[in-house]
Amino acid sequence: MKLNRLIQSIALAGLGSTVVMAQDTAVPDAEDAKVERIRVTGSNIKRTNIEGSLPLTVFSKAEIDAQGITSAEQLLMQLNIAGNSSDNLASNGGIVSEEQRGNNGVSGANLRGQGADATLVLLNGRRVATHGLKGRAVDLNSIPFAALERVEVLRDGASAMYGTDAIGGVINFITKKDYTGAEASAFTDTTEAGGGNIYRANLLVGAGDINQDGWNIFGTLSYKKNETLDGNDRAFSNTFQPERGLSPDTRGTPFATVFNRPASQPNLIGTGLRDPRDGLTVIAINTLDLPGGAGCAAGGDNMGPYDERLWSSLSSRYACAWDYPAAARIQQPQDSLDFISRASFKLNENHSAYVELVASKVEVSKAFEPNQISPGATFTPDTWYPSTGAAYDQVYAALANYFGADQLNYGERIAYRWRCMACGPREIDTETTSYRMMAAFEGIITAFDWDYNVGLSRASSESDSVLGSGYHYTDALKQVLGSGLINPFLLPGQRQSDAGMAALEAASAAGVKLYGGESIMTQIDATLTGGLGFELPGGEIQAAIGADLRREEFKFNGDERAEMRPIFNAPFDNANVLDKVSRDIKAVFVELYVPLHDTLDVSLAGRYDKYDGFGSTTNPKVSFNYRPMEELMFRGAFSTGFKVPSFNQLFNGNTESQYTGLDLADPSTCPSGVASETVPGCASIRPVEIFGGKEDLKPEESEQKSFGVVVAPFDNFNFSIDWWEIERTDTIRSAPRDVLIENYDVFQANWIRDSSGQVIAIDRRFINSGGTLTRGIEVDANLTGEFAGGNWRLNLNGSYIDSFKTKGLEILPYSDNLVGEYVRYYNLPIKWKHTLNLSYVKGDWSHNLTQVFRDGYKDELPVSVRNGSYIPSGWNPDVTSYTTYNYSLSYSGFDNLKFTFGIKNLFDQDPPFTAHQNDFAAGAAWEPRIADPRGRAYTLLLEYKFL
């Protein structure tokens, strides 16, 4: 077989956007090449690794190590075709959306912005169990990352190959198949500013030569530790930037804010106080912020003035605020232990068998701001600060001095909003134990000269979340507060009484299990592949046929205590308890490789899936590869895909969540739904939002299209450009609030009202919405050369998102293009991402310098800007781009020892500023879906071979 210039140049480039050869592999002579056929992600047919037309990106272990990447989550953050969604631990560190409830400890893979549940994750070509708490996506933390040999990323839909979930693409984590010897490695990733350090150690041992001894067995054990990085550890994590449109929307402060109450609930300030300045009634008053007071900053760290203009709440002009977003951990502490072992046996020259065990245990702890104590349904008048409290007269005097004693009700309790620093930060600890056991046979059926592969596997992911600090039994907490033992009006340097702290400790609910779940998958699969005996001008037609039988099981348990004593603000999920649900999937698939000519081949594939409860679905795929000349190749594909509803989406019970924003208005009287105190009918509302499953949900469907060109005009230069489009219909999501507003006439029933007509709840349970349309272009370019006796390579890999549109109903037109616009919770569709890498290898030395670029976007509008009431002086609607540089140096000149030293974020670039609302997203003035908060860090990897 002749290798033309195009194929040779791509192979020499190493990592490109097609199937690639390992960098250390020599390219065969163009006339005499005889290359082994292999199977790659996205096809069941074995082909030469230089024939593939699939848009496949491959990362070798050496390339991963050179970048100082220690986890699948870090790899996805650098992968340009990965979406920018809330798929990493930092995005789930504090306040999360309803879609992320139960995502404790989860890192997901999200290709092309289609979501973690629409991206298929494989380990050695086969499925693994989804995470135990939600059962919707695979947790990347359970992947044995240190044992990887390479990672293959299929940038195309693959439902015709693998079934459900493979809409955005496929990520296949591939470990070693055999190993003989012993080696150990140690890695450290230490930040210059402190906090967030990462450590990893790995041991690999193997014995037996599969060809000489007929067997091989190896095992690898890895331990990884991520240390805590708190929001307060980084100066950019600061929401007190009101001139730029960002200020914390809370009046719950470490030095409490005095609040009004209705006339039916007597309290110190009654229904509010008239301001002597202009007669305005104020309802939230922090005595530190009164004229002549010490100022909000005197109340302690992270305290400052509440920006009443920014939040359109002039009645809070004397309130203070506290930087609660900065109180969240921005790198969660993580301890993980993973193990993989594989035993392979050569049965004879044509048949072999292997068994494989993969297991992991991951412990993650998230922590965020202490509970806020506010007067209301829970904290009734008997819990408010009594007149016998030590600080009562002090607060009364400060108020009387400015407002006048005649406005106050001396002797009545003080209603207040307070951040309970004495309670401690709220902490949730999650432990996930995962495993996959697999046995497989593979070989050649000599009578037909066909390959076969048959496997049986069982995988499980079991998780439990437990309350840590910061949570207290409601009845005991109310009693402590009402007694006056706890003083909410302490200044820095002052401390609670021993009796008060002892009472709080006695009320602690630490150690109570929130919930737990387990996702189980059992699979039997078989594939046959070989030639059909029909020769075409381009070669023999190849075929693959197979079957896939799976059982998916899921169970979720909530509060299992015999006595369900209420715990204040504990995020139990009892409404979603599932004793055990399961479904069976039966599938058959076929694939044909048709080489019509030396320059043109076509691949046809189809898969039929039958799901319990959903009927059946058939999904085809057709792709082609056309090489009109030696330097040019065209490729393209069309396929359909599907995604069945998860168990949660089907069977979740109803849960309620209080809407805490100040920007929502009743669309029946305010068509825009944007709250404004100056527009009649547009008063702010804070209804309950109802979330839950629906058993009548239909599967999602999709169409994927792609067309690309690969050009290699010179032996040392090639580039590829691939256009793609994904259109999804009947997408399953919680009913979007903006859709319910914009189409109020259709969704009036979703706005639940009381007898007076006031909105008290919004039904946002899962629906099959209209769909999404996403288009983009991916580019990859490689240039190689020689310099000073060494070899260099320059690679540019980039992703351009041209369109991202949604529609709430099938009958509606698509929305405006959302690319470059801020999107809450889900994928943040920035226009352009790229990595530019320069590598140089000479002898035992190798250097790598990488630029990582993430485009800017339009920021979320602050409430006052959105309703037009106030525009801060420094408000900038544009979030700037984010560029970092990483460098590494490797040396392998020592016997059995190799070291790699690196610097991440070489110029210590901070994440760009963003004013997004922190009641709906993590990140205090920065975006965890885009940026790395750790700053400059130094890495060192040592690898030593004993045998």
Describe the secondary-structure layout.
Layout: H1 5-13, E1 37-38, E2 47-48, E3 56-60, H2 61-66, H3 72-78, E4 119-123, E5 126-127, E6 148-154, H4 159-162, E7 169-175, E8 181-191, E9 198-207, E10 215-226, E11 229-230, E12 257-259, E13 273-274, E14 281-282, E15 284-285, E16 303-305, E17 320-322, E18 329-331, E19 334-346, E20 351-368, E21 372-373, H5 392-403, E22 416-419, E23 426-445, E24 450-467, H6 474-483, H7 498-507, E25 513-536, E26 539-557, E27 578-597, E28 600-611, E29 615-629, E30 632-643, H8 647-651, E31 655-658, E32 688-691, E33 700-714, E34 717-729, E35 732-734, H9 737-742, E36 751-753, E37 759-763, E38 766-768, E39 771-787, E40 790-807, E41 832-842, E42 845-854, E43 857-858, H10 863-867, E44 878-879, E45 882-894, E46 897-904, E47 937-945
Parallel strand pairs: 4-7, 32-37
Antiparallel strand pairs: 1-2, 3-6, 4-5, 6-7, 8-9, 8-47, 9-10, 10-19, 11-18, 12-15, 12-22, 13-14, 16-17, 19-20, 20-23, 21-22, 23-24, 24-25, 25-26, 26-27, 27-28, 28-29, 29-30, 30-33, 31-32, 33-34, 34-39, 35-38, 36-37, 39-40, 40-41, 41-42, 42-45, 43-44, 45-46, 46-47
Helix pairs in contact: 6-7
